Amino acid sequence: MLSKRIIPCLDVRDGRTTKGIKFQDNRDIGDPVEMAKFYYENGADEIVFYDITASSDKRPIMIDVVKRVAETIFIPFSVGGGIRTVENMREVLLAGAEKVSVNSAAVLNPAVIRQGAEAFGSQCVVLGMDVKQVEPSHKIPSGYEVVINGGRTFMGLDALWWAQEGERLGAGEICLNSIDADGTQDGYAIELTRLISSHVHIPVIASGGAGKPEHLLHVLTEGHADAALIASMVHYGTHTLQEIKECLHRGNVKVRMTW
Amino acid sequence: MIAILDYRAGNLTSVQRALTFLGHASTITDSREEIEKAERIIFPGVGAAGKSMENLRQLGLDVILKERLEAGIPVLGICVGLQVLFQHSEENNTACLGILPGRVRLFSSNLRDVDGSPLKIPHMGWNGVTFSRPHPVFESIAEGSEFYFVHSYYPEPENPEHIQGTTDYGITFASAVAHKNLVAVQFHPEKSGPAGLGILTNFCRWNGEDTAQ
């Protein structure tokens, strides 16, 4: 039986992680390659890199990071942020990433999903979605709206419709981030995750809101998520992957316990 | 030197990176001369069966692969490199290499998990493998190890003796096969952490004899 995946997410700017791992001796690792290695050795099932480098002329820095990560860890990893074209995707995949994630670019140009899936296969293309809860309306019947630019720009797009459209266009997976839950550490958006997950046939990664192991237990059971993204709760050493997986294992969620 | 067959499939470099990490020299190649010199062959792949077979035939790699298997060279097939070993694949209704009797089928869209919830296709993520008999390539793999899968089609070997390991995903399917100097796995050892690297290490040491047969 398939295991649920636990996926640390690293934000990278100009080749450095924005949140380094803080160890108890206050040593700070800000090198994304070192951090990826740390999580790989401690049982991560996959790793997500999110490139928040502002200027596009610094993209080669990220490509170099991807290459070094690919030589160091032997689990799948994906790269998102700043990927707009099939050419961007090719560059990242050739550097050694398993998957690429498109978010705003797909909203502005949905064809990029189909082009990516046709060129590299659906399994390489992750549709990233940032979603905010709104009053249900004629235009947004599900009550969840797609936003871009880190939650600042509402796109008039119903999240449920967009998830299904993304699947139809060829996305192999959805990374669903709740802007409302993100950063709160109060738990994932369970209802949103369940709504999307039960209406698509591709895996859904829940993102935003993880603060303690029980939050993952909830979203992987009640939320029907296939995988869960985590960030601060492990980066700051508050929790470990081992501890999270033991909690899930005790809660009868199948996770990979041997690494 | 290990030859990684270059039939224009995806995922060739990730296999090479894993081998480099393990200290084994390899070359990604479609040259008959280089493949004939290699002491072992890896037949990897991400892609569709139809296009894969078309490329293999166009490059003459179908013939070379069969010759090297006959010559007793150890061969490891991965993912699509396992699937096209069989006679037929439902993917693009493709006639395949026919090295092993059997066919490759699409997962049914109404697969259910043990708890009754619908299973998604592709089968993507980490899953266990139950190894049915000892084999040099699969020895010393830690109990409870899981491997990374991503596929929508699964092999159905005709000869049960070729089944080396099985995996449960709504149904129980053959996720590892072995016959003489040929082994093949549906999962990606190059993306399966230490357990996967262990299989690659074993393969790199293997003389091609299946001691259990």
Describe this protein's structure.
The complex is a heterodimer of chains A (259) and B (213). Chain A is of the alpha/beta class and 259 residues long. Chain A has a single domain, classed as Aldolase class I (TIM Barrel), CATH 3.20.20.70. Chain A is 34% helix and 24% strand. Chain A has an 8-stranded parallel β-barrel with strand order 1-5-6-7-8-11-12-13, surrounded by 7 helices. A two-stranded antiparallel ribbon of chain A has the order 3-4. In chain A, strand 11, helix 7 (190-197) and strand 12 (204-207) form a beta-alpha-beta unit. The two termini of chain A are 17 Å apart. The model of chain A has no long low-confidence stretch (mean pLDDT 93). By secondary structure, chain B is an alpha/beta fold. Chain B has one domain: Class I glutamine amidotransferase (GATase) domain (Rossmann fold, 3-Layer(aba) Sandwich). In chain B, the strands form 3 sheets. In chain B, strands 2-1-3-4-14-13-12-9 form an 8-stranded mixed β-sheet, with helices on both faces. In chain B, strands 6-5-7-11 form a 4-stranded mixed β-sheet, covered by helices on one side. A two-stranded antiparallel ribbon of chain B has the order 8-10. Chains A and B meet through loops of A and helix 1, strand 8, strand 10 and helix 6 of B.
Topology:
The complex is a heterodimer of chains A (259) and B (213).
Chain A: E1 5-13, E2 16-17, E3 21-22, E4 28-29, H1 32-41, E5 47-51, H2 59-70, E6 77-80, H3 86-94, E7 99-102, H4 104-108, H5 111-120, E8 125-133, E9 144-148, E10 153-158, H6 159-169, E11 173-178, H7 190-197, E12 204-207, H8 213-221, E13 227-230, H9 232-235, H10 241-250
Helix pairs in contact in A: 1-2, 8-10
Chain B: E1 2-5, H1 12-21, E2 26-29, H2 32-37, E3 40-43, H3 49-59, H4 61-70, E4 75-78, H5 80-83, E5 88-89, E6 94-95, E7 102-106, E8 123-128, E9 130-131, E10 146-151, E11 153-157, E12 163-169, E13 171-179, E14 182-185, H6 193-205
Parallel strand pairs in B: 1-2, 1-3, 3-4, 4-14, 5-7
Antiparallel strand pairs in B: 5-6, 7-11, 8-10, 9-12, 12-13, 13-14
